[in-house]
Design goal:
2 copies of one chain form a homodimer. Helices cover about 40% and strands about 15% of the residues of chain A. Chain A has 3 domains: about 10-40, no CATH class; about 90-360, 3-Layer(aba) Sandwich (Aspartate Aminotransferase, domain 2); about 365-495, Aspartate Aminotransferase, domain 1 (Alpha-Beta Complex), CATH 3.90.1150. In chain A, the strands form 2 sheets. A 7-stranded mixed β-sheet of chain A has the order 1-7-6-5-4-2-3, sandwiched between helices. In chain A, strands 8-9-11-10 form a 4-stranded antiparallel β-sheet, with helices on one face. Chain A is of the alpha/beta class and about 500 residues long. In chain A, helix 10 packs parallel to helix 11 (about 255-260). Chain A contains 16 helices and 11 strands. The interface between A and B is large, with 168 and 168 residues. Chains A, B: InterPro entries: PyrdxlP-dep_de-COase (IPR002129), PyrdxlP-dep_Trfase (IPR015424), PyrdxlP-dep_Trfase_major (IPR015421), PyrdxlP-dep_Trfase_small (IPR015422). Chains A, B: One of its GO terms (molecular function) is pyridoxal phosphate binding. Chains A, B: Its cofactor is pyridoxal 5'-phosphate. Chains A, B: This is Glutamate decarboxylase.
């Protein structure tokens, strides 16, 4: 046997920095290795200057924004706690805090009564939602759990899809095909979900969002569901988006919820970006109908300003996750409180701590203030673009994403009349891509771009500059100067 | 239009704490809200005392250990950088650092030459691995990408499984069924993967690990693959485990790799726990054959001591991820460097920063020291248990997980002779479960338990206490006292 001295504590393991909350940690502190200072230098001098400054007020290109500086401490603290939410034995009170936080978010979206939360929030045999590492995983979770439910077999669990797989399960249930309905502007994570679940991209049916929103929307949607049913095809789910990634558009959630319910179709709302507007009593109306969803994706790292890697999938029914419960012999056992039995992920960080913290430090009111200012900022920028002769506005922003494009003098009339030739359209696309890229390369401002099908239905794609107004530090002057810079770049490109 | 003053910066957004690296951040600092102090108090006085102290030297029950205190700063820093690795426009140098880090890990496991890494590490059209949020997701990634490759259709991508789904793809290729081969001690995340991919739990074929390791192992495995093929069943993958969750056992990786290669079956090694032993030149031999794997899961939050939520799935072939490439119009475009096109997850944190940091601050040598001491610690504990009259050792630990059980005086002879009756066996199980639970409840030490099928093949399950020796602070004296406490508890239970 080795003696105590021979085993010892490896010195390199215990090197440390300082932190304000460190004395909350119950374990010994070690020493600072010589190389730590060198690494700090690397971070300060090489790394930090070359990351993308997503916190900059003129970085308005993506759904990645600044995080409040308190995240440094909360996140660092989470790291040192190092709780693993897969089970109680590695998480203790953290498991209860995760349930509490999910209950609080569930209440904001589904607005059930006090008794509901009193019973279901802590109940080991029920689950109101999953904290996941991202929106894609939240969307995958929703579709996967809906599928497990739809192709479950309560009389004989050994004949459920979970056990026998998709193919045999479809044969047993008599389905010839399975589709998911969404719109052409659904997030591309739906493709990832369709691939993973074995359904395939082509079974994600993309409805024209404009028709869906029109007076014919309800009839069309209902008719589609009817026809699929007649053909022996299972309509697994209908996907609504609350704040599309490309343009921040909100699908007609209420109508979709009603039609889905009529046809017993799972209604999932991808509110990864827009869901945060539920925190504002003034703006929550924009998401009318979301309360009727069967499941909702909300990303903490979007408009809750949490650090990257924190998302939630909320389930209206506390029973849904039960259809996908998985147990093992050493944890997540049947009947236990361990959260691991209800999540796709296994070991998971104590992200609930960050959500718990911001709900108390920023709070619903704090978020309302931020979200309302984002909305104001987008309206302001939309008006600025519309009033500016050199730019065309795509539409009045519904939330806080503004699409627009630069139009050179000689094309302005034809743009207004909608009489651009195909060649001119392509030229305009190229010009806007160049403007976007040059501005990014210059590095003082950043707007992204996207491509959206031409409104005429010609199949042509139109490039639009895309501004996501979610940085609380972005001022009207920043926005004016961003446009100015784009105009200057355009002038240089045209010359 | 609103004026500058009317939009402003919401005050609640910009509250902050302090941190040593904060001045590396390019954005403005805000103020500390009144409630921050109250929340710090809550963390110190209520939360911290009630989490599970996974860093305690006598917390040896799970694969969740202490993290070096430097994680507080690195993790906090990652949070404030808030880079999103889905694309270059939200990550800049972080995308390149992620590729660098994956290349470094790939080299440790697959040991390709300098030219290989020079070309493939930075190449936008290839991918050597994914950084994921956990081992389950890494395992899912490996199986999903293997499936996309196996059922791809290079001549007509529109007829690939990604597009047409599992059912139609199987029909096209003429497969009647798909199975994955593993052993009875594979991690339960394989069930999650089988469910997600539409294959079902029952298509995960569990080989007896003892037979696999025996002289008949190779013949049996090869015969199985042959028979499945004859029956029109696709053997998608073979799963080897390097350090099983329950007992730290290593499958015969080399033989498995050879048989898989002969039958053109994807060989995935789940080295979530044991993979870190590759950092030690002394102990790497234990994983003989891992270099021939097609993909490998390694969890940073296990024996690399990173905070929860950092795992890697490494791909031997730089082409594998290409079969699952997904693009969109606003990011992860074809031909671009954006990592999002090759990952199941979308938005992802800059976890590569943490790995980058520890590879420089702790380094391969530092990890070797830690891993070797873990191995010593397990050998020591195994010897301690074996020499102790009141306990039975399950087997000589291969890595650093030790299984054992308490045996009361009157059953010791029958345990040694292997003549326990079914009732006595169940009584012994119950006793050990009680000991484990009481020790957890007392709160000064923690060992977990698991259930493993009886070696006789009777189908009976045996409860074993399970010690994971991965805490560098655990001393021989801690281990002695843990056993002592269990004996004391047992005595009280028996009385």
């Amino acid at each position: 046997m080795k003696t105590t001295a021979a085993i010892g504590i490896p010195k390199l393991f215990s090197c440390q920095f300082e932190g304000k909350l460190l004395d909350a940690f119950p374990f010994e502190q070690g020493y600072t290795p010589a190389s730590a200072e060198a690494y700090i230098d690397f971070v300060k001098q090489e790394l930090a200057p070359q990351i993308v400054n997503v916190a900059h007020p003129r970085y308005i290109g993506h759904m990645t924004g600044p995080v409040p500086p308190l995240m440094h401490e909360l996140h660092g603290c989470m790291a040192l706690f190092n709780q693993n939410l897969v089970k109680l034995e590695t998480s203790g009170i953290a498991t209860h805090i995760e349930r509490e936080v999910i209950g609080e978010l569930h209440r904001i979206f589904f607005q059930k009564g006090e008794e509901f939360y009193k019973y279901y929030t802590p109940d080991p045999d029920h689950c109101l939602g999953n904290i996941t590492s991202g929106g894609t995983l939240s969307n995958i979770t929703a579709l996967s759990y809906a599928l497990s439910k739809k192709l479950s077999n309560p009389e004989d669990p050994s004949a459920s899809i979970n056990n026998i797989g998709l193919l045999k399960s479809m044969v047993n249930k008599g389905y010839t095909d399975i589709v998911v309905l969404g719109t052409a502007h659904s997030h591309y994570s739906m493709n990832k979900a369709m691939r993973l679940l074995g359904l395939g991209y082509q079974s994600f049916i993309k409805i024209d969002p404009a028709i869906l929103k029109s007076a014919e929307g309800r009839g069309m949607l209902s008719g589609m569901m009817e026809n699929y049913k007649k053909a022996g095809t299972l309509v697994l789910a209908l996907i609504g988006v609350a704040g599309t990634t490309e343009a921040g558009i909100i699908d007609p959630l209420e109508m979709m919820a009603e039609v889905a319910a009529e046809h017993d179709v799972h209604f999932h709302v991808d509110a990864a970006f827009g869901g945060a507007f539920m925190f504002s009593d003034k703006l929550a109306d924009k998401l009318q109908g979301i309360t009727q969803a069967d499941s909702i994706t909300l990303c903490g790292h979007k408009q809750l300003y949490l650090p990257m890697g924190i998302s939630v999938c909320l389930f209206k029914s506390p029973e849904l996750a039960g259809y996908s419960e998985i147990n093992s012999h050493y944890q997540a056992r049947k009947g236990g409180i361990d959260l691991g039995k209800y999540t796709i992920e296994g070991s998971r960080p104590f992200s609930a701590f960050i959500i718990h913290g911001v709900l108390r430090l920023i709070g619903k009111e704090g978020y309302a203030e931020i979200l309302e200012s984002n909305h104001d900022r987008a309206r302001y920028f939309g008006e600025l673009v519309a009033a500016h002769g050199s730019f065309e506005l795509y539409n009045t922003p519904e939330l806080n994403i503004v699409l627009y494009r630069y139009v050179p003098t000689w094309l302005r009339t034809r743009v207004k009349k909608g009489t651009l030739s195909k060649t001119e359209q392509q030229e305009l696309n190229r010009l806007n891509v160049i403007i976007q890229k040059r501005q990014f390369d210059k590095g003082s401002s950043f707007v992204s771009y996207t491509e959206i099908p031409d409104a005429s239905g010609s199949g042509e794609r139109v490039v639009w500059l895309r501004a996501v107004l979610m940085n609380p530090y972005t001022s009207p002057q920043d926005l004016q100067e961003i446009l100015q810079e784009q105009e200057t770049i355009a002038a240089a490109v045209i010359l």
